[in-house]
């Protein structure tokens, strides 16, 4: 892509990362995140949410929590998508108190309303 003069943006990277995460290729998805940062392309909340979801799907809740925290530390609003990913992760690992706490933060701190995916967790 870049050989042809096309510079990918966060949206393009997100699509690529999503496909990689769905195929369990998290190490390659993380390399894309590093490439974004090296090229001064700021990841948005959707990029982080995609990686958080991929980490959770592949059983790495600890890394997902770190990345979710990084999203907030960078001043980004994780959005309903990011919160849904974390709620799903906490539920998957039987951490219901953490899931409820995350749900409350979603509503009280970032003032997001749950959507149909929130309740499918």
UniProtKB/TrEMBL annotation:
Keywords assigned: Repeat
PROSITE patterns registered for this protein in UniProt: PPR
Pfam families for this protein: PPR_2 (PF13041)
InterPro entries referenced in this protein's UniProt entry, alphabetically: PPR_P_subfamily (IPR050872), PPR_rpt (IPR002885), TPR-like_helical_dom_sf (IPR011990)
Ranges of the PPR repeats in the UniProt entry: 9-43, 44-78, 79-113
SUPFAM superfamilies: HCP-like
Domain of life, source organism: Eukaryota
Keyword Endoplasmic reticulum in record: no
UniProt cross-references to PANTHER family, sorted A to Z: MITOCHONDRIAL GROUP I INTRON SPLICING FACTOR CCM1, PENTACOTRIPEPTIDE-REPEAT REGION OF PRORP DOMAIN-CONTAINING PROTEIN
Protein family membership: Belongs to the PPR family. P subfamily.
Protein name: Pentatricopeptide repeat-containing protein
Organism of provenance: Prunus yedoensis var. nudiflora
UniProt lineage: Eukaryota, Viridiplantae, Streptophyta, Embryophyta, Tracheophyta
């Amino acid at each position: 892509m870049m050989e042809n003069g096309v510079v990918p943006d966060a949206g393009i990277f997100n699509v690529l990362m999503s496909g990689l995460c769905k195929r369990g290729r998290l190490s390659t998805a993380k390399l894309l995140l590093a490439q974004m940062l090296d090229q001064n392309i700021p990841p948005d909340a959707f990029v982080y949410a995609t990686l958080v979801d991929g980490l959770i799907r592949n059983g790495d809740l600890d890394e997902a929590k770190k990345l979710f925290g990084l999203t907030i530390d960078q001043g980004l609003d994780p959005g309903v998508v990011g919160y849904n990913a974390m709620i799903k992760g906490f539920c998957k690992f039987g951490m219901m108190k953490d899931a409820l706490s995350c749900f409350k933060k979603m509503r009280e701190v970032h003032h997001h309303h749950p959507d149909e995916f929130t309740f499918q967790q």
